[in-house]
Design brief:
By secondary structure, this protein is α/β, with parallel strands linked by helices. It has one domain: Uracil-DNA glycosylase-like domain (Uracil-DNA Glycosylase, subunit E, 3-Layer(aba) Sandwich). It has 9 helices and 6 strands, in the order H-H-E-E-H-H-E-H-E-H-H-E-E-H-H. The chain binds iron/sulfur cluster. Iron/sulfur cluster binds next to helix 5. Iron/sulfur cluster (SF4) binds near residues 103, 188 and 191.
Amino acid sequence: MSEMTRRSVFLDEIGLGPLWLRRDGGLASAEPIEADMAPAEAIPAAALHGQQLEPVMQNRAEISAWGGDEPISAPPAVVHAANSPAAMDWTQLQTAVAGCTACGLCHGRKNTVFGVGDSKAKWLFIGEGPGRNEDIQGEPFVGPAGKLLDNILLAMGLKRGDNAYIANVVKCRPTDGTGRDRPPAADEVAACMPYLQRQIELIQPTILVALGKTAALSLLGLDPATPVSKLRGTVHRYADRPLVVTYHPAYLLRQLGDKGKVWSDLCLAMSTYANAGE
Ligand code: SF4
């Protein structure tokens, strides 16, 4: 089975087919990017951009989840009680996360969810935070959304643990007063972001893919009112690395009609990766 056929099979399997081929043999979007999904202006990264390893996010509002475009509320101050992760190696970082009490999410967790995959991966996928299944298993993206992400990775010629690493913005599960999953609050994102920043520094990925609104806004330091739809279709930069934004798989499970848009985003990511010489 050729590479192209294999991808087509996977795309069909996850409902992203048909896979259109350009005359030059390259991949084309399963559906065109809509006019109202035009790239946002190039937006300068704010304080969370790479070099800044101390928690900031002072002007960041509470971020809404799973790629939705809901309005969000005002930011709390940032407190980070842990030692700075900036100088930690991989093992030290894992240990620090496992014992972290830098924000209130530590109280309700069963497990911290550090990340999973190839620690030297060229592809880094970043989601929002652990849900119930992830909290129980200590691994990101398990359950239906994880299965969808795995199939997307396969369609891209990747797989969990092989040139791909998967992490979240926060390492502990955020829940509301009824025990249901919720988006992390601004102070929780700010407290946890230094861990992700250090993971990125240690992994040295060629490209980052932000899965959903929380990941995109956290990494790019954008106005929290920015909808995901305005972030798609362009290549952003994070710490001098390309970053492509797409919808979170959990959102995609609820909005099956947007799968073609996700494939468009991933085609952009793959062409960006190829142009980076990898
Ligand atoms: S979410 Fe992050 S900062 Fe908060 S307790 Fe967990 S590991 Fe620490």
